[in-house]
Specification:
- About 30% of the residues lie in helices and about 25% in strands.
- The protein is of the alpha/beta class and about 325 residues long.
- The strands form two sheets. It has an eight-stranded mixed beta sheet. A seven-stranded mixed beta sheet has the order 7-8-9-10-11-12-13.
- The chain starts with 9 loop residues before the first helix and ends with a strand.
Length: about 325
């Protein structure tokens, strides 16, 4: 593990995180101050704490990713049963009682199934936007902390998370950008297209987890009724392999060291198809690790916040 930020810097990092919104915001959507963000990242970079990223499961049967450094553990999505979540956390070398925060992208069960129960059992703080909390019947403040789009959610003194709105059918869905030690990671799933706002925040991320849900030909010629095919391929549906490949082509830079393709459809996709389509678009600009997150994890861990990201296989 790398060193923590010097003690003298930690209060300033926390203070700047809390004060890094422009004061002229309208409504609940806060505008970021890029000069302040840059200053925070430079301060935090003075003591880099590597962040480990492990997919616990991906797909229609349940989604969850765990993020861990020497100071904190947090989840994005909790779409498996509490029992399965605990089993997979232990396989990743994490005691569930170590989980400090659970952040939920949207209310669909494959992303939120056991979030409330697990948060209460483990003593973790639960976060979602207000629409998700309402749809799931969670009580703001007493059961869940609510955030607005583009809020900066402080996890601890060296990690913060920003929700980015994305279009998804019948849901107020968000992607998440994770800030740590001057680097960024992204978690993007359940959307029919990438907005300009999302692409702006994906640009130059060290790690990107992004869905590649379906192969267009397999979906078109598959067993689903036409109405479901239109919903999946529509603006509020899911990303196809080609859409994901084009997004990656637009946002991958020399800073991007690892990519995980996730939420692959079992009926309308295959790992080798998703991987080859992505590589065709980014092979000239990307020389890092490209992995596929399967239905049952954990299988591997990526680390950012060091000189280079690296992939660690997990033996069950």
């Amino acid at each position: 593990m790398g060193p923590r930020p010097p003690l003298i810097l930690r209060p300033y990092i926390t203070m700047m995180e809390r004060c890094s919104y422009d004061g002229h915001n309208s409504g609940n959507a806060y505008a970021r101050n890029p000069r302040t963000d840059s200053f925070i990242d430079r301060l935090t970079h003075a003591g880099i704490v590597p962040l480990e990223i492990t997919h616990l499961g991906s797909g229609s049967s349940g989604n969850s990713v765990v993020y861990k450094n020497e100071d904190t553990v947090f989840l994005i999505d909790c779409g498996l049963s509490t029992r399965q979540m605990e089993k997979r956390l232990f396989l990743a070398g994490i005691n569930p009682s170590q989980v400090d925060h659970i952040l939920i992208t949207h209310h669909h069960a494959d992303h939120s199934k056991s979030a409330l129960k697990s948060s209460k059992k483990w003593g973790a703080r639960l976060h979602s936007n207000l629409e998700t909390a309402i749809r799931l019947g969670w009580q703001p403040m007493s059961e869940v902390r609510t955030f607005s789009d583009l809020d900066r959610i402080e996890i601890n003194h060296n990690v913060s998370v920003m929700p980015i709105p994305v279009p998804h059918d019948d849901a107020d869905n968000v992607a998440f950008i994770i800030f740590t030690g001057g680097e960024r990671a992204a978690y993007v799933t359940d959307l029919g297209e990438a907005t300009d706002e999302l692409k702006k925040h994906l640009m130059g991320c060290s790690h990107i987890s992004i869905e590649a849900n379906y192969d267009h030909n397999r979906l078109l010629n598959g067993p689903y009724p036409d109405s479901l095919k239109r919903r999946i391929s529509g603006r509020g549906g899911h990303l196809s392999n080609l859409q994901t490949a084009n997004i990656l082509r637009d946002v991958v830079t020399a800073s991007t060291k690892s990519i995980v393709l996730c939420h692959l459809s079992e009926k309308n996709n295959a790992p080798h198809i998703a991987e080859s389509e992505a590589l065709m678009k980014i092979h000239d600009s990307f020389d890092g690790d490209l992995s596929i997150s399967g239905k049952i994890g954990p299988e591997f861990t990526h680390r950012i916040g060091e000189n280079a990201s690296r992939r660690i296989s997990i033996d069950h």
